[in-house]
Amino acid sequence: MKKWGKLLAALLLLGLTTGCWDRTELNELSITSATAVDRQGDQWIVSYQVLIPSVVSGALGPMKGGAKLPITVYSTEGPTIREAIYQSALESPRTLFFSHNRVMIVGEELAKNGLDELIDVYLRNSDSRETVAVLITKGEGRKILEQLLQIQIIPGDGIRETMRTERKNFSVLPYVNMYKLAMELTSEARNAVIPEIFISGGEPVTSSDQMNKTTMSSKLKLGRLAVLKEGKLKGWLKAEQSLGANFLRDEVKRTVLSTGCGDEGGKNQSAIKILNSKTKVKPVIRGENEPIRMIVDVKAEGTLLETRCKIDLDKPEVISKLEKQMEGEILAIIRDGFKETQKLKADIVGFADLVHRKYPKRWHEMKSDWPEEYSRIKLETHVDFTLKRLGLTSKSFTKMFEQVEDEKK
């Protein structure tokens, strides 16, 4: 009887367990690698870069009818973003799957009207990951999704890797994902930035025939930095100005700058690679009517990549002059970038948070008028640069060449 009782209990428990009642098979999904969102009138237009699994697995190999493209791009529209997405059921046999979405391209017109609804969608729905990288483009975002890449099979992956490579090796543009964008727009300053992407060159590359060449007529390229105030596009920073803002944000990993030859004069005669950089910022408020002072300390070190200067790099005083010159270059870049943000009255470097933490009472007094307060801030910047390495030789080839010529004479 005990055995039959145990068996009956086991059967009852099996009846209570749930199975995979809501499963979705892989062949029922459309995996998106990139999306774009635009706005036309009162309609949202959402575009999708969808993978074609059979082609991706063959790595663009020849199939029936010749080489096939790894992606297809199409758009849907609706009065809300999610309705526009669900409109895809009218024209696609598969359900859109966004968990592998790599980048989100935002059209300029949409950015001018505000990104609050778009961010709400990403933070509200579980199938949309807030780690997706965000970029902005002039014109329609769909055009960016249609552009093919040669090195990367999947363009969406290629765009994200380009952003990561730029951030790691050049640091002009910050890497911005949806979560970071939301955090910056809800910070004390309520300002944020988004990198620009555009099609550089001539005719867009959208067919396999255009891909079968050593040189493509156009390519995707990162450009300026878009500045957002309270979620809306308000202006742009050039690449060098963006680098200056990145120094203040302490987001410069590595970059390359050109400088002159010290006492010899000339410009852009030497290239120096910054290997690491650290920025510390401290707010100082004295009198009630005095502008806020920001004490900025930048410490960086780097290596000499090339030089056309006729200098003797074995002399410590020569190295010291190069270091001073680099300090001047970094200082000028920071000042130029900061001045442009003050013109826009957009605190994209996070000074508001620093003031709030150190002077909470004063912050509540100036919070409502922070854009004006920010435009009056005085920047006191100190740069300490150390040239750690000179490369494989301490001699300038230009000077060595001249010495050989003098000996011949």
UniProtKB/TrEMBL annotation:
Boundaries of every Spore germination protein N-terminal domain copy: 22-197
Keywords: Germination, Lipoprotein, Membrane, Palmitate, Signal
Record-annotated Spore germination GerAC-like C-terminal domain positions: 225-391
Origin superkingdom: Bacteria
GO CC, one annotated term: membrane
Cross-referenced Pfam families: Spore_GerAC, Spore_GerAC_N
UniProt topology in membrane: Lipid-anchor
Single biological process term from Gene Ontology: spore germination
Cleavable signal peptide: 1-22
Subcellular location: Membrane
Family to which the UniProt record says this protein belongs: Belongs to the GerABKC lipoprotein family.
Protein's name in the database: Ger(X)C family spore germination protein
Upper taxonomic lineage: Bacteria, Bacillati, Bacillota, Bacilli, Bacillales
